Automatic annotation (TrEMBL):
Name under which the protein is recorded: Nucleoside diphosphate kinase
Record carries keyword Transport: no
Organism taxonomic ancestry: Bacteria, Pseudomonadati, Pseudomonadota, Gammaproteobacteria, Moraxellales
Reactions that this protein is recorded to catalyse: a 2'-deoxyribonucleoside 5'-diphosphate + ATP = a 2'-deoxyribonucleoside 5'-triphosphate + ADP; a ribonucleoside 5'-diphosphate + ATP = a ribonucleoside 5'-triphosphate + ADP; dZDP + ATP = dZTP + ADP
Domain of life: Bacteria
Active site: H116 (pros-phosphohistidine intermediate)
Name of the encoding gene: ndk
Length: 142
């Protein structure tokens, strides 16, 4: 099915000048960028995004890391976009990420793992609307 998913290029990958290399992988995989913005997250915006992890031991470090520099938030669209995006990102922990995946090539640790992607249709809908209004997402007809 045609789907949309939320992508975040995290502060480590932005600082490493890897935005273009990561966008290249999205586009080469057939995913279309239908919305994008660079943002400096604050405590409230980063904390709210990861609210489901609030009780996890890594939550405070995760929120601090996500505020440590700008992020590039995008909506990607395409056939099976949610699973496709997860496949090309690779495992959460770069140590476990398959060769040729974004995290294998650009992430340094489970905490600084270069990218985030929605893990289900429900989280994609929630995460896209967390960052974008409907009119900020552009229809792609070609
Ligand atoms: P992300 O897909 O953005 O979702 C939550 C983030 O928490 C995850 O990527 C990791 O960067 C970070 N994290 C740190 N420790 C863990 C852990 N033990 N399990 C899952 N995620 C973790």
């Amino acid at each position: 099915a045609n789907e949309r998913t939320l992508s975040i290029i995290k502060p480590d990958a932005v600082a490493g000048n890897n935005i273009g290399a990561i966008y290249d992988r999205f586009e080469k995989s057939g995913l279309k960028i239908v919305a994008a913005k660079m943002m400096q997250l604050d405590d409230e915006k980063a904390g709210g995004f990861y609210a489901e992890h609030a009780e996890r031991p890594f939550y405070n470090d995760l929120v601090s890391f996500m505020m440590s520099g700008p992020v590039l938030v995008s909506v990607l669209e395409g056939e099976n976009a949610i699973a496709k995006h997860r496949d090309i990102m690779g495992a959460t922990n770069p140590k476990d990420a398959a060769e040729g995946t974004i995290r294998a090539d650009f992430a340094s640790s489970i905490d600084e793992n270069a990218v985030h992607g929605s893990d289900s249709a429900e989280s994609a809908a929630r995460e896209i609307s967390y960052f974008f209004s409907e009119d900020e997402v552009c229809a792609r007809t070609r």
